[in-house]
Design brief:
Layout: H1 2-36, E1 38-42, E2 48-52, E3 58-60, H2 65-70, H3 96-100, E4 111-112, E5 117-118, H4 120-126, E6 130-133, H5 136-146, E7 150-152, H6 161-178, H7 181-201, E8 208-212, E9 224-225, H8 230-234, E10 238-239, E11 254-255, H9 258-264, E12 268-272, H10 276-285, H11 293-296, E13 300-303, H12 310-324, H13 334-346, H14 353-360, E14 365-367
Parallel strand pairs: 3-6, 6-7, 8-10, 8-12, 12-13
Antiparallel strand pairs: 1-2, 4-5, 9-11, 13-14
Helix pairs in contact: 6-7, 12-13
């Protein structure tokens, strides 16, 4: 009798535990899931955003997709911007991260960075887990209109130490969101190593340098320049245009007068490849440029158009360093270094990026603006 009662008691206890488990499952699961399925992120604009712990689908606006690729997350991309596409007017074969990952070029287009346009309906249709945006106003608009968590990241040039710090912090924020924290640390460490290497090889020189044909929303003539040209900063070079504006928030583009360039008369001139045709057309029309010391001495060189691509920025810096400090960079082959940099940043077919530029858009070489 005692044994039978004991069995009954045990059965009742097991039943109660099972019933409790069932009630817990149905009544408590939603709360537990909501507490553990998201994480709080403080983005580059100091906005607090709740994002899923597991992110499998993403899109980026403001050309933030390059950083998604840098973080080995190209497989998570479900949409691109028009500038990155293979549609009319797209620059997909001029952007290192798209050259390295041609499979991305045919993804649906979710906006146009050049016009600051976003296709909210397309984003909702693609249903990404997270969206990255380049500025807080756009991020708020996207999040309000789509209901999808939108994280602000730094997408601009890195022309000052503050901007570089912001960029590295932004990479780590994106790494946390994408589940790529280790990769973010690796990339930041690689950037640090390049910065340190360039700084150790160089010191401030009295030789004046100038970049012309700065690509800024399209090609420009030789009077288009950058007072904070990042490769010059990395090399401690004497940028003759730095007197234009030295504030931390200075624009990356400045259009000077022809007379100002002639007055400055820099020792060495670098021309961005994306503007080479426009520059040569300009210098042909104005023979007074031939009086420039750099042109007379044959110290004019072509570099890749870096804009906001950090890999191009470092590749250009190593080539420019080879020109300005030949002894200190005697062990550097600029093309080999470019291949290393493009591969490190982009993965995929990153090793073919420089060759694509070389055969189609420009390369590291000396120019003679008197005969072009």
């Amino acid at each position: 009798m005692i044994n039978i009662n004991r069995k009954i008691v045990i059965t009742i206890i097991i039943g109660i535990l099972c019933l409790g488990g069932i009630l817990y499952f149905f009544l408590g699961l939603e709360k537990v899931s909501s507490d553990t399925s998201t994480v709080s992120i403080t983005d580059a604009a100091n906005r607090t955003v709740q994002v899923p712990v597991q992110v499998n689908r993403v899109v980026g606006t403001g050309t933030s997709n390059r950083n998604i690729v840098y973080l080995n997350s190209s497989d998570k991309l479900v949409g691109i911007e028009q500038i990155e596409s293979n549609s009319a007017g797209g620059w997909e074969n001029q952007l290192p991260y798209m050259i390295a990952h041609p499979e991305l070029r045919s993804l649906p287009v979710i906006g146009d960075a050049r016009k600051n346009l976003v296709n909210y309906e397309k984003i909702i249709e693609l249903d990404p887990d997270v969206i990255f945006a380049g500025n807080p106003q756009q991020a708020d608009d996207i999040q309000n209109k789509t209901g999808i968590p939108t994280v602000v990241v730094y997408v601009g040039a890195v022309e000052t130490p503050e901007q570089m710090d912001n960029y590295k912090k932004s990479l780590k924020i994106m790494g946390k969101v994408l589940g790529k924290e280790t990769r973010a640390d690796e990339l930041v460490n690689y950037i640090d190593s390049c910065q340190e290497d360039l700084a150790n090889r160089t010191s401030f020189s009295n030789k004046t340098v100038y970049v012309g044909g700065q690509v800024y929303y399209g090609a420009h003539d030789i009077t288009s320049t950058n007072p904070h040209y990042p490769p010059f900063t990395l090399l401690n070079a004497n940028n003759i245009a730095s007197v234009i504006n030295t504030t931390a928030n200075a624009t990356s583009h400045a259009q000077i007068d022809r007379e100002q360039l002639i007055k400055w008369n820099p020792d060495v001139i670098f021309i961005e490849s994306g503007s080479l045709a426009t520059v040569t057309n300009d210098t042909t029309k104005h023979p007074e440029y031939n009086d420039l010391k750099a042109i007379q001495d044959g110290n004019v060189y072509e570099v890749l158009s870096c804009c906001y691509d950090k890999d191009i920025m470092f590749a250009d810096a190593y080539y420019i360093g080879k020109i300005l400090y030949p002894e200190q960079f005697s062990d550097v082959d600029p093309e080999e270094k470019a291949n290393e940099i493009f591969m490190e940043f982009n993965g995929g077919s990153g090793g073919s990026v420089y060759e694509t530029f070389k055969t189609q858009f420009g390369e590291f070489k000396k120019l003679d603006l008197r005969t072009l």
